[in-house]
Amino acid sequence: MTTTSRGLGAVLVAQFLSALADNALLFAAIALLKATAAPAWHTPLLQEGFLLAYILLAPFVGHIADTWAKGRVMLAANALKLAGAGVMLLGANPVLAYALVGVGAAAYSPAKYGILSEFVPPDKLVKANGLLEGSTIAAILLGVVLGGYLADQKAQLAVAFTVGVYFLAALANLRIPKSAAVGGQLRSPRALVGEFWSALRTLMRSQDGRFTLLGTSLFWGTGSTLRFILVAWVPVALGIADTAMPANLSGAVAVGIAVGAAAASRFVTLSNVNRALPAGLALGSLIIAFATVTSLPVAVGMLVLIGACGGFYVVPLNALLQEKGHESVGAGSAIAVQNFVENLLMLVMVGAYTAMARAGLSPVSLAMAFGGIVLLGIGSLAWSRVKPQGLPATASEGSSMR
Fold first, then answer.
1. pLDDT for 272-283, tens place per residue?
2. Predicted confidence (pLDDT) per residue in 108-144, tens digit
3. For the chain: N or C, fewer Cβ within 10 A?
4. Are 305 and 352 in contact (CB under 8 A)?
């Protein structure tokens, strides 16, 4: 086995285990809050603290990933996750403990994506991303199932399970071949903040960088908001009042994303990345159509299709950002900027959904309005990508629809 294939395999295994534990631990933390009769508003704080870690640490974690060997950064970040699960097991506040896990996840992300460009050539980067996204989706599904089942038995058992899985992920991190650090000496926080904003400006000035940052952010903002829409929509549209059905339908979206990611790795490369645009445009239209569905089988089928379009759309964009980031600001810094923009837009889109819900819109109207917002956002990006420029586009910009 070559160093390249061994390194990629170790990254995929480590990511699968780490993501599995992340999702199982969330359900364990929710169960712990319920067991202690914590106020209901504490539950969303789990996710908010997790997201805020990505936003606040964005200026620093990309530089760390580009300065130190990325495999060792993944190991250190996984140790933070392990510590968060460990203190939760010992009785720490679940919200604070899960926030520590979020710190580890924020540091883990730019390293896990940035390291792909060190193990595979550019023409294989989309395929590698597809494998990574597929591994992550499988881990999310298994983590949700196992975490929910174990938490129903005993919350502490579910937390102990995640501690063990994080430990296995650390062992997989140790199998990643050590790559050379490329960023020089660590710099002061003030300098890093300045460099982060410089990297953000650099990527936003580039057509490819701006397209990928905003495009992937719209996708993940759509996914995070769709979970809340399903919770409100299912009882009204399908007449099903239990809490398991929205979670199961979210799983249908995840299955679709895995299918779409696999298809993208087969049919899309960096040289024809615009093939992903029609799938992105379909997202908003499908959500609008989905809002009117009243049949459970049709709803499941449409959500799988929504997920498939999303996976086919986002995987090539991730690969393009890694390549352009590697060429300009560093792959780790590019992913850190991406995490900042994505999580910021996730908070904004969830906030917009909350505002519309408080204004009294019905769940069906909310879903249709949200689909329209997604269609308008991705449509604007697609038009800016393919509109006539008057002069032939360069190959690197990839402006023609292929």
1. 888 888 999 999
2. 887 887 787 777 777 777 778 778 877 887 888 788 7
3. N
4. no
The answer to whether the CB of 331 falls within 8 A of the CB of 341 is: no
Distance between CA atoms of residues 160 and 162, nearest Å: 5
Q: What is the pLDDT of residue 9?
A: 83
Closest CA to 59 of 341, 254, 316, 268: 341
- Do 138 and 225 reside in the same domain of the chain? no
Residue 389 clears pLDDT 70, i.e. is over it:
no
Backbone angles phi, psi at 172, to 5 degrees: -65, -35
Nearest to 330 by CA among 208, 207, 181, 127: 181
Look up tokens 């360069």; give the residue: 394
CA nearest to 327, candidates 262, 387, 270, 280: 270
Global confidence as pTM: 0.68
Predicted pLDDT of residue 134 = 76
Name the nearest CA neighbour of 322 among 146, 177, 178, 124. 124
Do 237 and 348 lie in one domain? The reply is: yes
